[in-house]
Amino acid sequence: MVNSKCRWECPEQWSEWSDWLAAGLHATNRWRLPVLLLGILFASGRRTVTTWLRAAGVSDDFQGYYYFLAVIGRKTESVATELVALLLRTLPLLERLLLVIDDSPTKTYKTFLATYPPVGCVIRVVLIKEDHGWYAFFCTDSNASVQEILEAFADRATIEQDFHDVKEVWGSGQQQVRNVWTNLAVYNLNLWMHTLVELWAWNRSGRQLVNRSDSPWDDADRRPSHADRRKALRQHILDNELSAITAAWLLPRKIIQLAQNLMALAA
């Protein structure tokens, strides 16, 4: 019998977000997305799709999940829109929200006002002409000037750090798939996981996200990295699993301590 049940129980908030993203998928297979996201979270080593499914405990249903990846590839725009809506609903947004696409702009541009339903307000759109095409920027402050929008985009060092994290923490490019839709799916899944982990960690303090007591040479006040946030979420899920077990079974304290030490290494 094919095993399609994930071995991990995720936090209620994470489950809500996973279901939110899956809402735009067909009802017959949308349940696979939360399982797949947890597999990506707990995968280690080379991050192939096989590693994802093994980490989720659903390797026996490989064909079903591989087919599902192609479905996601055809629905990336829909799921990504749901993710933007989730961010806008969850985060305490500033007065101005700036979204950018691609690389550095030139001086040739067009600008106009437009409506964008996920944002719920009028936005200012700026189109920048490059030698090989037009690039789009938009800002939720409709009164912002083109100069202000482009200057904000110029300060984009954090975007480069995100590219690094997607490659190094999530293993983007290691998935070893062939179908064009599946390639599109796995790349976007890495981006979505990066975003969801940052969202989960948003309101948590540095001390909640990382404990450097076992690294006395490190700066205890250093801001948690994205890898630290990912590890904290994994640890949180493992702790919940242990709590559920100890609530149902009376275990010796030494066994619980050993389990906690092993989980710290696994996370």
Low-confidence parts: none
Structural class estimated from helices and strands: alpha+beta
Radius of gyration: 21 Å
Give the oligomeric state: single chain
Our estimate of the beta-strand percent is 5-15%
Amino-to-carboxy terminus distance:
30 Å
Main sheet summary: 4 strands, antiparallel
Mean pLDDT: 82
Number of helices: 11
> Strand sequence of the main sheet, in spatial order?
1-4-3-2
- Give helix % range: 40-55%
Order of helices and strands: HHHHHEEEEHHHHHH
Total beta-strand segments: 4
Report the principal-axis shape: globular
3D architecture notes:
- This protein is α+β, with helices and mostly antiparallel strands and 267 residues long.
- Helix content is 53%, strand content 10%.
- It has eleven helices and four strands.
- The protein has a four-stranded antiparallel sheet, with helices on one face.
- The longest helix is centred in the last third of the chain and has 23 residues, at 226-248.
- The protein starts with 11 loop residues before the first helix and ends with a helix.
